[in-house]
Amino acid sequence: MTQSGRTFFLRPRDMIGIVILAFLLIVVLPLTLDNFRLQFVGKYLTYAFVALGLVLCWGYAGILSLGQGVFFGLGGYCMAMFLKLEASSVANTKIQTTPGIPDFMDWNQITALPWFWEPFRSFPFTVLAVVLVPAIFAFIVGFALFKRRVGGVYFAIITQALAAIMTILIVGQQGYTGGINGITDLRTLNGWDIRTDSAKTVLYFVCVGLLIACILIAYFVKSSKLGRILVAMRDKEDRVRFSGYDVSNFKVFVFCLAASLSAIGGAMFTLQVGFMSPSFVGIVPSIEMVIYTAVGGRLSILGAIYGTLLVNWAKTSFSETFPELWLLGLGGLFIAVVLAFPNGIAGLWQTYVAPRLGPLFSDAVKRRDATPPATPPASGPVAPAAAE
Amino acid sequence: MFSDYSLAELGSIFVMQGFAGLILFSVFVLMALGLAIIFGQMGVINMAHGEFMILGAYVTYFTSQFFLNYLPGLFGIYFFIAMILAFIAAGALGMAVEWLMIRRLYKRPLDTLLATWGLSLILQQIYRSVFGPREVGVELPGWMMGSLPVTDSIEMQINGLFVMGLTICITIAVALLMYRSNWGIQVRAVVQNRIMAGAVGINTEKVDRYTFGLGCGIAGVAGSAFTMIGSTGPTSGQLYIVDTFLVVVFGGAQSLLGTIASAFTISQAQSTLEFFLSGSMAKVLTLLGVVIILMLRPQGLFVIKVRR
Amino acid sequence: MNVITDQMNKDFVLAVEGLTVSFDGFKAVNDLSFYVDENEIRVIIGPNGAGKTTVLDLICGRTKATNGSIRFKSQELTKMKEHEIVRAGVGRKFQNPSIYEDLTVFENLEISYPKGRSVFGALAFRRDAPVKERVQEIAETIFLADQLDQRAEYLSHGQKQWLEIGMLLIQDPELLMLDEPVAGMSVSERKKTAELLNTIIKDRSVIVIEHDMKFVEDIAHKVTVLHQGKILSEGSMAKVQADPKVVEVYLGH
């Protein structure tokens, strides 16, 4: 793309990519998979929101967060709190000591709804909270750390610690959070039963719709000057600062955006799967979400979606047949992606497939030579192709 | 929360919790020492550090079984042999990992984090397949059992005291090695200026490999010590990795003294809080406190100011 | 006393007074004072480790001063953040070319264009005609007009230096600081760079760190010689060259 031609934020290549993905998710998969399998895909897609956030945050801005599960969980818990309150109507819970509060609170001798649960009776509030609570949390963490120029591995370790803290907190405070089991037995959304097959199919399409909207947002950010500043920052942070930008603000922004995206995924997870538990918040799920992004290609918005689907599909099929092999496979995948394919599937596509498809799909012509993915440039994770 | 106890009881509580804290402190220091070398000196994030520790613990367990079955007369000293074997096993594995994986990633610290996480998953699964999913515990030699009564209400377990003594010895040995030996100078030279160190004839690749091996070896010894106070399972190492990283970062990654001071602060805070709150809240408050302090003072407790 | 200092500052674009920075007791810059006039070209020379780059770091806020003041058009820079200093009108080029390798030449220049510097400003930033014209104009000045779509990592070393100069130029700073702008260049590149610098230093004050004496002689209005964080000598090139102290520590080597 030359600087003269671009007026719209999507290049033709991006548009084709999005249309193909949408066709796959909206037409091909629903027609070829049974309901049970389609619900699996719906669940995987909720992780794709996290992967999408990580592409912007980690791939573009170079900020590796190992605490994305926290945001996924916050979004999921916000939604679960609303659904749980709806499921815990006085009529449904009349056998409890205190009717009208969630069952796990009753089991833990809590007799009144805690204050922070109260607003989640309102659906509009819940929807706002899903997006804003994680963003505010990310803002506080990001502001404190980025203003003091904490980055790189220190940021990764601190976010990982936050994931650990959040899990211990949720498990420990079971009277308020449902503890290790999480918030379960969710039934209806504004009176609409979400447990039926037809509801799950509808939710699948809602999830796909939201995902495509988020993909468009990600493309918009990427193609704006902000997106280029993120790349510039990853490369030469000082130069950006000495071009008159307050670098930390940009980092805070992209971290908050990634948090909100993850949270939307979390909320959709709760709706489709019907529960939320701390096992999606902690260190292990958080770092697994990073591997989805890495496998798909940390620089590729669409790659991250395919990476998520692929890794989860592999996980499900392996866990069904050889549960032991899966951990070995996942471990091997981490090592292989990092050592041999730092740009993931998208990098392979960009290097081997796209050039054969002609100029619409490849901009390799303009480069002197695309560095093969096996030997990434020493400076960082970023091999040549901004691979889309 | 203090009102329920008499002053004398409170005193005993603090001493006993302080002692429990000291044992936790010993484990932290032993794990953190290895990490401080690998992360602080080489800048490599080794997420599999806990698994190296567990390897040492398994080696110790099998050595104890061997002595129990074949050399029961020498059972009293098996631990010292196990410790050496644990160091060698973990160190050798560390050097192999450095050669196969880490050396390709020195310029991509975030990627070492992901790759070593993958390694930790693989090691956990191997332990599970080979040693079984159940936790194993060693039998302590007779002289390590029992406790020393200090006052009526205070007593200290001998195995705990032993682990503490061991920690002190290993710490001193590492400090001497890093700051007094010729080899330590080479390591620090490579860290500060790799190209220059290479130019003055230091084999930087060799130094890297041995440094990484040493860090892992110390983790193995930590695992040995760990068996004295807890049981070992395939995922035991995972439990400590985040805490240990916080210890190292909180202490100021390049400072050995800082690592020890921060291990002390964190372990004491956690064990003292544990008595008054639930274990999980004690941990939450401790970790949160550390994270908040790191937000306010990201360079850690001890830091060397350098000219850029 | 204060009144007099303030009076004096008015005439200078940059007034550095009593500037000191110490790193764990080592004073890299020690009680340094100097003044730069409007449209003056000041060259700082000195042996390695004299504190030249540290002085630039202090002015642009990369390093915080232990003591002393730096006043730029009567604004105190020591208390400002890096990006505020840039927005006040100070531009700085690093010793090694510092450009964004993953972006094209056009994008490198565009990022330096002084508009849309806030987060939401950058989101809303449009690549409109004035931006394109300005980028084109700068690209011509720095001899890179036909490389606009090239990824910056494929430029030669000299071209990268020019690109960074162009990135400063597009900001149109009132005070331009250049750290060894011709280091590592071939003879022809060096000649072209001198030409380039001669055109861009008009209408602004410039501080240059440079080792190339021929180059210094060509452009300097005034030379400051630093040695161990202190000023050893200051004045015209001829005066400095005649100073026996300077000859001893620097030129004599």
Secondary-structure topology with pairs:
The complex is a heterotrimer of chains A (388), B (308) and C (253).
Chain A: H1 12-32, H2 35-60, H3 68-87, H4 103-107, H5 123-147, H6 152-172, H7 174-177, E1 188-189, E2 192-193, H8 197-223, H9 225-235, H10 237-241, H11 247-273, H12 283-296, H13 301-321, H14 323-339, H15 344-353
Antiparallel strand pairs in A: 1-2
Helix pairs in contact in A: 1-8, 2-8, 2-11, 2-12, 2-13, 3-5, 3-11, 5-11, 8-9, 8-11, 12-13, 12-15, 13-14
Chain B: H1 7-42, H2 49-70, H3 78-100, H4 109-131, E1 147-149, E2 155-157, H5 158-179, H6 182-192, H7 194-199, H8 204-229, H9 236-251, H10 256-276, H11 279-296
Helix pairs in contact in B: 1-5, 1-8, 1-9, 1-10, 2-3, 2-4, 2-8, 2-9, 3-8, 5-6, 5-8, 6-8, 9-10, 9-11, 10-11
Chain C: H1 2-11, E1 12-23, E2 26-37, E3 41-45, H2 52-59, E4 67-72, E5 75-76, H3 82-88, E6 90-93, H4 105-112, H5 119-124, H6 129-141, H7 157-169, E7 175-179, H8 187-200, E8 205-209, H9 213-219, E9 222-227, E10 230-235, H10 237-242, H11 244-251
Parallel strand pairs in C: 3-8, 3-9, 6-7, 7-8
Antiparallel strand pairs in C: 1-2, 1-4, 4-5, 9-10
Quick tags:
heterotrimer, A: 388 residues, mainly alpha, two-stranded antiparallel sheet, globular, disordered N terminus, B: 308 residues, 11 helices, disordered C terminus
Description:
The complex is a heterotrimer of chains A (388), B (308) and C (253). Chain A is mainly α. Chain A has helices at residues 12-32, 35-60, 68-87, 103-107, 123-147, 152-172, 174-177, 197-223, 225-235, 237-241, 247-273, 283-296, 301-321, 323-339, 344-353; strands at residues 188-189, 192-193. In chain A, strands 1-2 form a two-stranded antiparallel ribbon. The two termini of chain A are 13 Å apart. In chain A, 52% of the residues are buried. The model of chain A is unreliable at 1-6 and 364-388 (pLDDT under 50). Chain B has helices at 7-42, 49-70, 78-100, 109-131, 158-179, 182-192, 194-199, 204-229, 236-251, 256-276, 279-296; strands at residues 147-149, 155-157. In chain B, helix 2 packs across helix 9 (236-251), helix 5 packs across helix 6 and helix 9 (236-251) packs across helix 10. In chain B, strand 1 and strand 2 (155-157) form a beta hairpin. Chain B is globular and about 65 Å long. Chain B starts with 6 loop residues before the first helix and ends in a 12-residue tail after the last helix. Chain B has 11 helices and 2 strands; from the N terminus they run H-H-H-H-E-E-H-H-H-H-H-H-H. Chain C is built from 11 helices and 10 strands. A 6-stranded mixed β-sheet of chain C has the order 6-7-8-3-9-10, with helices on both faces. In chain C, helix 8 links the parallel strand 7 (175-179) and strand 8. Classes of the chains: A mainly alpha (388), B mainly alpha (308), C alpha/beta (253). Chains A and B meet through helix 5, helix 6, helix 12 and helix 14 of A and helix 4, helix 9 and helix 11 of B.
